[in-house]
Amino acid sequence: MTKENIPEKLKKLEEKIESFRNTSSKQKQKSAEYSIAVGRGVRLAADLLAGVVVGSGIGFVLDWLLNTRPIMLVVFLLFGGAAGFLNIYRTAHSTEQHNELKDH
Amino acid sequence: MSNPMEQFNIKKIIPIEVGGYDISFTNSSLFMFLAVICCSFLFLFCLRRRTIVPTGAQAFAEMIYNFIHSLVRENVGVEGLKYFSFIFSLFLFVAFGNVLGLFPYAFTFTSHVAAVGTLSLTALLLNIAIGIKKKKWGYIHTIMPKGIPWALAPLVMPIETISLLSKPFSLTVRLVANMTVGHIMLKIIAGFVVALGAVGFIPLLFDAGIIIFELFIALLQAFIYTVLSCIYLSDALHSH
User: What is the pTM of this model?
Assistant: First the structure.
């Protein structure tokens, strides 16, 4: 009698473990997805900021060297903004491509 | 002690001045030294008896090595393995800097733009050097992409140049901001422990939780810093 019961019990245990595994891995995946999304958002923000700051920094130094305050600062601030958006576009584009590659 | 920014002050330990430049040995330099010594000793200790079937300590060292090895291979490709030693040192230095900073009375040099910025600039210069060495004059296409009419060069070239130069900046800001914020938060909450008196154990428990989280952040940020340096390296090796 016990011999017949063992496989059934094992099967039940297996099912239990399987269902537990599924739920816990799903939860883990959710939290991992969340942290990846946050990381991506912060990265995009830093990329935009970096463009503007580096651009205006170059403008400031050029002004200081050429004594043309504030023309270069204004011009390079605009260039920096454009570079920031270019950074964002490239980052977003590359992550999108990466995701597509992963999905297929 | 109540000032949360006090922990980021740089103090001179051995004042040195050469030719009008202040090159003193500071607490920041001390912890950089400690980071290098710690990771050297960790690897010397773990790999003191090298066997084919690794023991526990050796397996730990090999795990870190394999982790960075596969990271470089995935993000840069097989040709990136030439620069493996650079990436591996970068990871260890940043990771140890972050983790050592979590000890009481320790100084976190990765919370300073000057230290991390210099690391990032080194990585940028290395990338530019590799790019020029590999593509010679073709490297100009990094700041003037193919297929763009030369009439647009005055507009495109500054934008692309700023985009290239801003990479180490965003890399630096991300690491520095993460480290600074974490340490300020720890300090402020620790300040409540004394201020609240009898119920001070609540912020203490909270701080204990945060420090575990900060340990995770310290390793994660070192990892992110390494991954992004790898991505910039791969841009230099095989870009458009």
Answer: 0.81
